[in-house]
Amino acid sequence: MTAPKLLYTIEQPHGLGELYFLWQKGESHSLLATTGTDATVAIHDRSGQLLERMKLQGLCAGMEWDHDGDYLAIITPNSNTVLLWECHANKRINIETGLREPPSCIAWAYGEPLLAVGTQKGNLALYNHHTTKRIPIIGKHTKKITCAAWNKDSILVLASEDKSLSINNSDGDTLRMISLRDAPNDLQFSEMKTDERVSGENTISLVVGKRTLYLYNLLNPENPIELAFQQRYGSIVSYKWYGDGYILIGFSAGFIIAISTHIKEVGEELFQVKNHKDNLTDVAVCNGLAASCGDGQLKLISIWNNGEVSGSVMPAGGAERCSWSSDGRLLATAGRAYLNVYVTALPPLHAAYGTRVITLTSLTEATVYQCIAVGDEPEPVNKSEPTALATYTLPTEPHVVALGGAHVCCARGPLAWFSPLAGGPAARRHYPAPPTVLTLAGDYAAALFHGRAMLHAIDQADPSQPEKEAMLFPEPHMQGAKIVDIHLTSDFFIFVTDQGHIEYFGVEEWRTAVRYKHVCGIRGVYCDIGGARACITDERRRVHVYCPAADDCCALNRTATADVRGIIWDICLSDRNVFIIYTDEAIETYYYAANSINGSYVDLVGVTPLLAGQIPLILFSGDVYCYASGGSVLKLALDSHNTSGLADADTEKRLANQRRHIEKLLALRRFSEAWLFCDAVDEPELWRKMGEAAIAELNVEFAIRVYTRLSDVAMVWALEDASHIEDLSILCGTLCACLNRGAAAARWLQASGAGALAALELHAAQGDWARAAALAALACPHRAHDITLHRAQHLELTADYHEALTNYEKSLKTEDLDDIKVKEHNEKCEAGIARMAIRCGDVMRGLTTAMKHSHDIMLVKECAQLLEEEKQYSHAAALYDHAGNTEKAASLYIKLKSWLKVEALLPKINSPSIHIQYAKAKEAEGRYHDALKSYLKAQDYEAAIRLNLDKLDDIDEAVNLVQETKSIQGAKMVANYFQNSDDPTAAIKFLVMSLCYDEAFQLARKNGKLHLYGEILIQTSQARPEDFKSLALHFEGEKNHLLAGKFYFHAGEYSKAMSHLLRSGGSEEEENEAIGIAIDAAAASDDERLTRRLIEFLLGETDGTPREPRHLFRLYMAKRQFTEAAKTAVIIAGAECRAGAYREARDVVRAMCVSLRGSRLPVPRDMRHAIALLHSYILVRTHVKRGRHDIAARLLLRTAADVTFFPTPQHQVSILTSTVIECSRAGLKHQAYHWARVLMQPEYRSQIDPKYVKKIESVVRHGARGPPAAAPAAPCPHCGAALPVADLTCTNCEADLPFCLATGLHIVKDDLTACPECDFPAIMTEFVEILQEEGKCPMCGENVDYRRLVKIDDVAAYMDLNTSQ
């Protein structure tokens, strides 16, 4: 919130008491009339100086300026005359109204000095000052006329204390009388908003009884509107119309509201604010701002921003009334004996010079700002933000300001004052007319006025000498031309005319330096700081960049449609080619490329939004310094130079921002900065884009750096060669060629006389042989034959054969025929002649020329192909045969039906197509066996099958071919054959093979072979679910639950399949098959409800008959429920043990262990214990057979220790007997004695085999002498402690140890391997011996080559799997 700036204060202009004022209307709008309690009217100018004071006969009752501001009418309550003051002549006139009573109100009409005077008794007088005619009208109203108003259509409205409103014409005739409910006041004319816009002031508004607002539309007189407001607002103090039919109303309680007069919005408050606590005395509106007086304060509010307060001030003497001057720049407020005038808006006067700007900061005050830091400025000024250097008081209120290196200039009318920046008296100059543009540079100034310009020195060195430094433009040679814009630099005075002239006048030489004539009239010129580049805008609304040094005018293609308000060049030396164009809404940033491979052109870099009221003045390295309201200067960063987001924490956003920034930098040709960001992003595409941009701008050295970074050696070499070229045209052409822009390169090279050879090479590289040949004939005759040959080859490719033949003939060389290169050249020419002769119809010439060079196989093939296209098959076949293309030759001989030649070539041919052609020909002749051989050689098995069936009647051979080749069409043919032969079984099989499922189903159904059809479908990988469903529905209808369920399973309908399979019944074999399919269905469906149904069935909960546990085990395995499967496996193993099937029990547990390990699940301890016991018992026989009784004894001791694991007493006695015998054989007498005593116990003794009784009794009888021998030990694979080889639990680390599948002993870390089939661990040396003897793994029974074994160093995997719980 900012307070308005006080311009001046007048203290007691009329003594103490009430003070009233009125601003002058019209264009001059500079005078202010005041009155008060001293019975005088004072006239003040804009600066507050008193111009005139008029003594009245009494207190002023009213005063009114006419609409042109020429006359001020004043009335008093005790005189029947009107005092009229003419401001231009300073003349006072007393006007008689023709009425006896004193006037009460006055109002001026629009367009003419017609004054309406209302009187105390309701009478009316009209006075025309031009004609001095007076018209008194008696009885217009019955009481005092309080207020009057005219509209622009000369309609006069009067309001009276008689509570009526009269509408009159300019002659005083009453048009309409309107009765009101209370006394009216504050009468105004305006325009009400309607759906259909009607121009003109059609609405009368007034306050009735100080409480309601009355709206009377002249176009709708029958429907007046009277608006009442809330009581808390108080009475209506004042109201003002603004905008498009809106009204701002001030109330005595301090409230301000805004309403709309649109018929759909009448009565609706747009906003409501309470700006004053106790009371409000007046409101005023101007250009989007409103002012209110109350509580001794003056407040400014924004009416377009919901009444937000934008400024506040406490004037001296308080504030009771306020009003804006007609230009909206000054706001006057009157209090008790004080008049205060504030500046609320200034004309946007500004100028720039170098790094400084000057702006008008008050009506007669200007401030110079330093915008860019410079080295020689004092420390407080050396900043990047605009800093005020000095404020200058101007001798007048200017309409133009200018700034130079040493002067400040202001002008009003034809006078201009030049004030030194360092201080001192101002030099005054009188121009022939008021200048519209003033510009300073150095010691000179230039002014533009009425289509002419004056250039002159600011300070005259010697006043006695004539002013020779002054000069008027345009010069005589520009007859009739008007100068429309000027610019002055330290070196040049530049002006443009409406006829398209651009002229540079040298200040030092004092003569014209450059002249240029544009194609149309010019509107403006905008130069850089030195004048070396200038932007011009012409009458066609186009923008061009003019470079006087190159005499080049480059057009700018603008896509924006907004009008150009101005153009500013960057004053930073490194960005001297950057300029901006600003409009009302945006700033467009451009880069001017004076020299590039594209010539001179202008690129759009970016667009930056511009706020209303901002005017760019200086551009420096991407920062724009703008004039803002009130004369301040703001710095604005261009979007084209914006660096925000380059350090974003989000990597993706940061990289995206950096990529966009690189594109901006390349558009601005800031290659060094772009290098840094490319290095950060490091993407080859960005590096390449930067290299191409550097090449386009002829920055060869930087481009070499970029392509060196890209390791593009070829491009670096090419650029290094180009860096030594001095001719601009050749350099541009070479760089265009580097960028694969051939057409541009050719234009550049041909533009230079020295580039003819390079242009020839370029045309040749582009394949533009016509131009190359024409250029070679002129510039390089020694290369004409080679270029003509290339042109002939190009014409041949474009099918211009006659012209190609002519060029081939022209390109033949006739000199130095013994030279090898000449021979090669002529051979190419003659080869072309051969081809073109055939193309042009001269077959014999082409054939003769081709055979002349028969050693050139490629040429012979090409000619053969051309002869074939010309349907010269005989010649073409002979050439193909000569070139070794026997297949093509054979094909043509087949067309010619030259069978002898074909048969001679067939042994050399592998192409199926030739054999097929030959086979078809032989089949047509009835030689079926020969045709069959050719079909088979061509692998056309369908044709061979057809031939066997239809012609040779060899069904067996046809069936073999179908089974070998899996031919679908062949199978269909065989199926049709079997159908016709009444063999439905074979027909069904081959119909399925041929994917004819529907026909196969119908045939199987017809012949009762649907079960066979289903089995065939199951074996087919391409069967469809609907085919299985058809079978399932059929068997469902036949109540065959097994087959219905089976085919529902294959159709993917698992619920139906389960329902039928569980109801299948029948034999044990059928039930087992049904259960197996049901298990597969449950696993495939992944439906827990189906799984529960099947488990209930297997456990007998459905029919009371439990099924074998192996089914449940298979279900859990299929469902990958390994924990439940493990429990079931132990149950099955126990059952197998009870049946004596220990190997089967071991296999069940082993399969479970493999599954758990494959799923990375722990193997339960009881399962590890079970497999260790079972495998140890099974290994005993193997080691007894090998004579390894020590190992067998150790394994039997382990088994005997847990003999109760084996359920039947008979098996237990057998195990204990074997233990005693093997321990005796191994010398383990103490162990033999121990287990012999166990056997002698009553529960075992009766079941001992009689042949072993005496031996066991002998062991018990003799006993064991001496201490037992220590058991052999091996290190624990986990902790390394010594451990008996047969122990599977370490007493040191308490780890469960895996056993060796070959010996049953615990594994050894240094001699470890694993079976490649079942992945169980083993001691490598023992496992190798067993595999060498038996060739099979003792655990899984698979054949294993001992050479496949690999020594394992890491025992941790097996330890982890065997110690997990």
Automatic annotation (TrEMBL):
SUPFAM superfamilies: WD40 repeat-like
InterPro entries documented for this protein: Beta-prop_WDR19_1st, TPR_IF140/IFT172/WDR19, WD40/YVTN_repeat-like_dom_sf, WD40_repeat_dom_sf, WD40_rpt, WDR19/dyf-2, WDR19_WD40_rpt
UniProt keyword list: Cell projection, Cilium, Repeat, TPR repeat, WD repeat
One Gene Ontology cellular component annotation held by this UniProt entry: intraciliary transport particle A
Localization per record: Cell projection, Cilium
Keyword Repeat: yes
Superkingdom, natural source: Eukaryota
Domain IF140/IFT172/WDR19 TPR: 862-1058
Protein's name according to its UniProt entry: WD repeat-containing protein 19
Organism ancestry: Eukaryota, Metazoa, Ecdysozoa, Arthropoda, Hexapoda
Gene of this entry: LOC113507059
